[in-house]
Specification:
Layout (H helix, E strand, L loop, with lengths): L1 H24 L3 E7 L1 E17 L2 E5 L4 E6 L6 E2 L4 E5 L2 H25 L4 H34 L4 H26 L4 H27 L1 E3 L4 E6 L6 E2 L4 E6 L4 E8 L11 E6 L2 E12 L5 E3 L2 E11 L10 E18 L4 E3 L2 E8 L2 E9 L6 E6 L6 E6 L11 E4 L1
Parallel strand pairs: 1-22
Antiparallel strand pairs: 1-21, 2-11, 2-16, 3-10, 4-6, 4-9, 5-8, 6-7, 8-10, 11-15, 12-13, 12-16, 13-15, 14-15, 16-20, 17-18, 18-19, 19-20
Length: about 400
C-alpha cells in the first residue's frame, strides 16, 4: 500500500512540475503599452475656408466701351482718391444729355399741369375770358334797351325774351371759360405728369451714375490685387475690371459641415494654415456663426466668419486655407491613448498592466479627443495600460504579457 502511494505522489509531483514549467516556458503575449499621465487635451474640428478682405472693392464696366487710360497696375498700393482707370465716356455723356432733355420736357409738362397750362395757354384763356365778359356786358345792355322799348310798346315781349336768352348764354360761356382757366387739368393728369417727371429724373440720375463710373478712383487706401484692363481694350458692359482692398484687414470664410455646427461658438480660437506656406500658421477667432445651412459643392455647410488676429503677412485674398477650431480645452487632464479604451454594454474599461499580467479596470471618461481619452476615475497617474497586441490577438485579463513600448 505504501508503494502505491509513493507512485501516486510521484505522479502528482510530475504533473505539478509539468504545468509549472509550461507556465514559465510558454510564449508571453507581446502588447504595446502606454502611460496614463496628465496633459493638455483639446477637441478640434477642421474644414476648408477662403481668405477674403473685410472691405473689398470691385469695379465693373458700366457700359460697353473701350479703356482710355490705366494709371496703376496689379499689386500697386494706391491712396484714397487716386485716379486708377478711365473709360471712353462719349456714349455715357450722350445718355446724360438725352436724359437732361427728357427731364426739361417733363418739368414743363408738370408745371403746365400745376399752373393750369402753359404761359401761352393761360394768356389765351385770359383773352377768351375778357371777350366773354365783354359779350356778357353787351348782352346786358341789349336786354336793358329791349326792356325799356317794351315798356313804351316799341318792342315786343318776344324780343325781350330773346335778349334775355342771349345774356344767359353769354353768362354761361363766361363761367365755363373761367372754370376752364382755373381747373384745366384733373388730379389724375397732374399725378401722371409728376410721375413722368420722377421717371425722367431717375433716368438722368442713372445716366449720370454711369458717366461717373467711367472714371474709377480709389475709394480708400489699399492694394490692387486683381486688374483685367489695358489701354484701348474693348470691355463688355458688366465686365470685372479690377479689385482692390486693404490687405491688412482680411478674414476667412470657413465652410463647416452641418453635423459640426453645434460644436462652434463665438470667440473660439482658430488656427489657419495655407498649403503654399506649410511652415506658417495664422491665428484667429470666430466672429459670426451661420444663420442657415447652404449647399457648397456636394456638402451641406454653414458659413462661419473668422477674424485674423495679428498681422496677415503672406496671406493673399481668394486663397484656399485649412481652418482648425478648438472647440474644447482641458488643461492638466489625466488621460490615456484612445487605443487603450474598450467599451461593452455601454460601460468603459481598460487593461492595466499588473506585474506581468493584464487586469481589467472599469473607468469613467470625459469627452475624448481624436487621439486621447480623459480619465475621470478608475486609473491613476503613472499607471501603464495596454493599447493592443503585436500579433493582433485580443487582450484578455490574466494573460501573461511582455511589454513593448
Amino acid at each position: 500500500m505504501s508503494r502505491k502511494w509513493q507512485w501516486i505522489g510521484a505522479a502528482v509531483v510530475l504533473v505539478l512540475v509539468f504545468f509549472t514549467a509550461r507556465y514559465f516556458l510558454r510564449d508571453r503575449l507581446q502588447v504595446r503599452v502606454a502611460r496614463v499621465e496628465r496633459q493638455m487635451l483639446q477637441n478640434t474640428v477642421s474644414t476648408n475656408g477662403r481668405v477674403e478682405p473685410i472691405t473689398n472693392y470691385s469695379f465693373y464696366s458700366p457700359l460697353a466701351t473701350t479703356v482710355e487710360a490705366v494709371y496703376a497696375q496689379e499689386g500697386d498700393l494706391v491712396r484714397a482718391g487716386k485716379l486708377i482707370l478711365r473709360l471712353d465716356d462719349v456714349a455715357a455723356r450722350a445718355q446724360v444729355a438725352s436724359a437732361e432733355s427728357a427731364v426739361r420736357t417733363a418739368q414743363a409738362a408738370y408745371e403746365a399741369a400745376t399752373h393750369n397750362g402753359t404761359q401761352a395757354e393761360r394768356q389765351a384763356a385770359a383773352a377768351e375770358i375778357e371777350q366773354d365778359r365783354l359779350a356778357g356786358q353787351q348782352a346786358q345792355r341789349d336786354l336793358d334797351a329791349m326792356t325799356r322799348l317794351a315798356a313804351t310798346g316799341a318792342a315786343a315781349q318776344g324780343e325781350v325774351a330773346a335778349a334775355r336768352s342771349r345774356l344767359e348764354t353769354a353768362e354761361a360761356t363766361l363761367k365755363a371759360a373761367q372754370e376752364n382757366a382755373q381747373h384745366r387739368y384733373s388730379q389724375g393728369e397732374i399725378a401722371r405728369a409728376k410721375a413722368a417727371l420722377t421717371d425722367a429724373e431717375a433716368a438722368l440720375a442713372a445716366a449720370q451714375h454711369v458717366e461717373a463710373q467711367t472714371s474709377i478712383y480709389a475709394p480708400a487706401t489699399g492694394w490692387i490685387y486683381s486688374m483685367d484692363a489695358s489701354p484701348s481694350e474693348y470691355e463688355e458692359a458688366g465686365k470685372l475690371l479690377l479689385k482692390m482692398a486693404d490687405l491688412h484687414k482680411q478674414r476667412v470664410r470657413a465652410y463647416f459641415d452641418e453635423p459640426d455646427l453645434g460644436r462652434l461658438a463665438l470667440g473660439q480660437r482658430v488656427a489657419i494654415r495655407w498649403d503654399a506656406k506649410p511652415g506658417s500658421e495664422w491665428r484667429g477667432h470666430i466672429v459670426r456663426l451661420p444663420i442657415t445651412v447652404v449647399t457648397y459643392t456636394t456638402r451641406n455647410v454653414g458659413e462661419v466668419l473668422v477674424d485674423i488676429d495679428g498681422p496677415e503677412d503672406g496671406l493673399l485674398p481668394d486663397t484656399n486655407v485649412t481652418v482648425t477650431v478648438t472647440t474644447a480645452s482641458l488643461p492638466n487632464a489625466l488621460s490615456m491613448p484612445r487605443d487603450a479604451l474598450h467599451e461593452r454594454n455601454g460601460k468603459y474599461f481598460a487593461y492595466r498592466v499588473d506585474g506581468d499580467q493584464l487586469k481589467r479596470v472599469d473607468i469613467t471618461i470625459g469627452p475624448p479627443t481624436l487621439t486621447q481619452v480623459p480619465i475621470l476615475s478608475g486609473l491613476q497617474d503613472g499607471d501603464m495600460v495596454a493599447t493592443g497586441s503585436l500579433n493582433g490577438q485580443p487582450l484578455q485579463e490574466g494573460v501573461p504579457i511582455k511589454e513593448v513600448r
